[in-house]
Amino acid sequence: MKIGRPASPAQAAENLLQRIEWTVLRRLDGALQGDYRMLIRGFGIDLADLREYQHGDDARTIDWNATARFGLPHVRQHNEDREVAAWFLVDLSGSVNFGSGMISKRSLAVDFIAVMSRLLTRHGNRAGAVLYTDGIDTVLPARGGRRHVVHLIDRVAASGTARGHGKPTQLGDLFARAAGVIKRRSLVFAVSDFISEAGWAHALASLGQRHEVIAVRLLDAVEMELPDLGMLTMEDAETGQQLFVDTHDAGFRRRFATLAAQREADLRAALAAAGADCIELSASDDLANTLVRFARLRKRRAQMASGGVPAALME
Predict the structure, then answer these.
(1) What is the pLDDT of residues 77-123, one digit of tens each?
(2) How many whole angstroms separate alpha carbon 154 and alpha carbon 137?
(3) Can you tell me the distance from the alpha carbon of 227 to that of 221, in angstroms, rounded to the nearest whole number?
């Protein structure tokens, strides 16, 4: 019996990308009908002019405020910057290695980056990354092409086991470094479980003043609701501190859920204060469906912001 050699890191990244292309990306193409910009609301598009509506114009371009002002239907015309630079700010600290099942939060991050970077680069755009473990370790310049996407996947998958316990995550450092690295207006994905020292929302808000920022939150169900598993030793992935707990105790599980709910409320408030939309990724969810729901939500918001186009005209 011949046993094959294990795949090299680069080959593993190539295999992952091929799987993503044949599964998630094919489904996204069908669901988004080729309009991948549904995921990046209004990026790189500037209003150039208004003109009177003509037969055959797309009803979605009607500017209802201008229509009311002039008394005749008017449509928006745009100048579009077709090249998008996308940056992935990737939190690879200790807590991201956690997974209560077969899939860790790190794996969720790798799959998301593979999907979005390939979706963008195959349309002539560029993708780069800033990687964080217990410090800012690596900056991967924004480049195009499939080979670069494989390189990104390889680096994200291979990097980022925190070098030691005792140093809490400082997401503010990651966002501040990104502000210095990313010079041109870009699409920025902040990929993290957002288990961090406080203060990062201000740095994320500062990024949002120049760039389009989307928070990509990595979730595991056990972090929200602890199951009854009996006696367990729990370890803080950030500090290494261990605690022996009885998960059979219903009162303990209720207190855990209460604290988790408070953390959830604090996180949502911080993201709202930073002005960032949020994609939530969980091992129990389908990635393609999650991205399609997010794209449609942003499209509806954009339609409402542009003048309240009646929903019937959007179908």
Answers:
(1) 654 455 789 999 999 998 898 888 888 999 999 999 999 999 999 88
(2) 15
(3) 10
The pLDDT tens digits of the residues spanning 247-267 come to 777 877 888 788 888 889 999
Q: Is 18 helix (H, G, I), strand (E, B) or coil?
A: helix
Helix (H, G, I), strand (E, B) or coil at 117: helix
CA angle 133/189/209 to nearest 5° reads 110
Comparing 306 with 31, the larger pLDDT belongs to 31
Of all residues in the chain, what percent carry a pLDDT higher than 70? 77
Contact by Cβ (8 Å): 63, 309: no
79 within a domain of the structure (yes/no): no
Residue 156 lies in a domain: yes
**Strand-pair category, 85-91 with 187-192:** parallel
CATH number for the domain harbouring residue 96: 3.40.50.410
Structural domain includes residue 40:
no
Whole-angstrom distance, CA of residue 145 vs CA of residue 203: 30
Q: pTM score, two decimals?
A: 0.80
Query: Of the candidates 218, 216, 28, which has an alpha carbon nearest to the alpha carbon of residue 115?
Result: 28
Closest CA to 275 of 231, 219, 214: 214
On whether the CB atoms of residues 230 and 248 are closer than 8 A, the answer is yes
Provide the domain count of the chain. Answer: 1
Residue 28 lies in a domain: no
Which residues constitute the domain of residue 197? Answer: 85-219+264-287
> Given this model, what pLDDT does residue 274 score?
87
